[in-house]
């Protein structure tokens, strides 16, 4: 099993739709996770951290399911500006380094 | 706060030449990380440094690649005798402590011709 695995997509949704991405991880000892956003040919930017209790920030909600070893990202009321690649991220060794999934591409259309 | 500064943004090298990529962390950040993103691939961890020390280089190729973060000046990722397979985007990130506060630079896109 790969360390962090994501559906590459693309997910094509209309504006206003709700879309959810899942990501599975292999290291059961991992404590916290992250979702990053990467626009085409740009650097990744932290979207949100994901802890045991989940996390909500405006239209974005992240959940962690330790039993099944997956995390999810829910985006409500999609905007055109949400079009990007969403990277699921788990701690690598010793927490300070990160393992990135290959990303899920989201395309929001008018 | 200027953020994490990487230069050059684009670098073209012929096979066999050396590539030097520079990264200046955010002010107050003493942890520097280098990641590589190959075309159509995810970011792969390469090396983690603090001032004058390599903390974790488990992701670095065994040959031709080296990194340093001197007491003064930027962190340098050095690739000797580049090959076409080294063509990628190289991202540097810095943090004050741990992985929560990662900030990435804009990256250096290396093309080997």
Structural overview:
The complex is a heterodimer of chains A (110) and B (113). In chain A, the strands form two sheets. In chain A, strands 2, 4, 5, 9, 10 and 11 form a six-stranded mixed beta sheet that branches. A five-stranded antiparallel beta sheet of chain A has the order 1-3-8-7-6, with no helix packed on it. The model of chain A has no long low-confidence stretch (mean pLDDT 90). Chain A has 110 residues and is an all-beta fold. Chain A has no helices and eleven strands. Chain B is an all-beta fold. Chain B is 0% helix and 50% strand. In chain B, strands 2, 4, 5, 6, 9, 10 and 11 form a seven-stranded mixed beta sheet that branches. Chain B has a four-stranded antiparallel beta sheet with strand order 1-3-8-7, with no helix packed on it. Chain B is globular and about 35 Å long. The relative contact order of chain B is 0.33. The model of chain B has no long low-confidence stretch (mean pLDDT 93). Chain A binds chain B through residues 4, 32, 34, 41-46, 49, 87, 91-103, and chain B through 31, 33, 35, 41-45, 48, 55-56, 58-59, 89, 91, 95, 98-100, 102, 104-107, 109.
> What portion of residues of chain A is helical?
under 10%
Oligomeric composition of the shown chains: heterodimer
Number of helices of chain B: 0
Structural class of chain A: mainly beta
Could you tell me how far the N terminus lies from the C terminus of chain B, measured between alpha carbons in angstroms? 36 Å
**Biggest sheet record of chain B:** 7 strands, mixed
The overall pLDDT average of chain A reads: 90
Q: Compute the gyration radius of chain A: what is it?
A: 13 Å
Portion of residues in beta strands of chain B equals over 45%
Q: Strand tally of chain B, please?
A: 11
Helical percentage of chain B = under 10%
Give me the number of helical elements of chain A: 0
Rounded mean pLDDT of chain B is 93
Low-confidence blocks of residues of chain A = none
What is the N-to-C succession of helices and strands of chain A? Answer: EEEEEEEEEEE
């Amino acid at each position: 099993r790969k360390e962090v695995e994501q559906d590459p997509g693309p997910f094509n949704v209309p504006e206003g739709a709700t879309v959810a991405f899942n990501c599975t991880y292999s290291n059961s000892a991992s404590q916290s996770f992250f979702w990053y956003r990467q626009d085409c040919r740009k650097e990744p930017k932290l979207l949100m951290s994901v802890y045991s209790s989940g996390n909500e920030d405006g239209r974005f909600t992240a959940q962690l399911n330790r039993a099944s070893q997956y995390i999810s990202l829910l985006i409500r009321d999609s905007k055109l500006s949400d079009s990007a690649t969403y990277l699921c991220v788990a701690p690598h060794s010793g927490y300070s380094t990160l393992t990135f999934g290959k990303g899920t591409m989201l395309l929001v259309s008018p | 706060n200027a953020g994490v500064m990487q230069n050059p943004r684009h670098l073209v090298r012929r096979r066999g030449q050396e590539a030097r990529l520079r990264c200046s962390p955010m002010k107050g950040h003493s942890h520097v990380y280098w990641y590589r993103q190959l075309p159509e691939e995810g970011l792969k961890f390469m090396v983690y440094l603090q001032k004058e020390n390599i903390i974790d280089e488990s992701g670095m190729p065994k040959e031709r690649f080296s990194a340093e973060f001197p007491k003064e000046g930027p962190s340098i990722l050095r690739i000797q005798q580049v090959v076409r397979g080294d063509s990628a985007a190289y991202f540097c990130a810095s943090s004050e402590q741990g992985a929560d506060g990662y900030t990435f630079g804009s990256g250096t896109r290396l093309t080997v011709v």
